[in-house]
């Protein structure tokens, strides 16, 4: 079981990198998107089924690491 758990953890970490790369690529092309639009684009482009809470965590991580920035002037409705 330990090897199976290690494999699952490795796959999970690898997917983090894929989500990060895809999000940065999308934002370089589009320049500005709402959170909902970015999630929708990610779900459409990723080759695996991702959960929205996981994508939100990755986007927050990219914002924290200053790969993306939040537009404080945009009000979400």
TrEMBL record:
Gene3D superfamilies to which the protein is assigned, alphabetical: Winged helix-like DNA-binding domain superfamily/Winged helix DNA-binding domain (1.10.10.10)
Domain Cullin neddylation: 11-76
InterPro entries with a match to the protein in the record: Cullin, Cullin_neddylation_domain, WH-like_DNA-bd_sf, WH_DNA-bd_sf
Domain of life: Eukaryota
Annotated Pfam families: Cullin_Nedd8
Protein name according to UniProt: 9895_t:CDS:1
Organism annotation: Diversispora eburnea
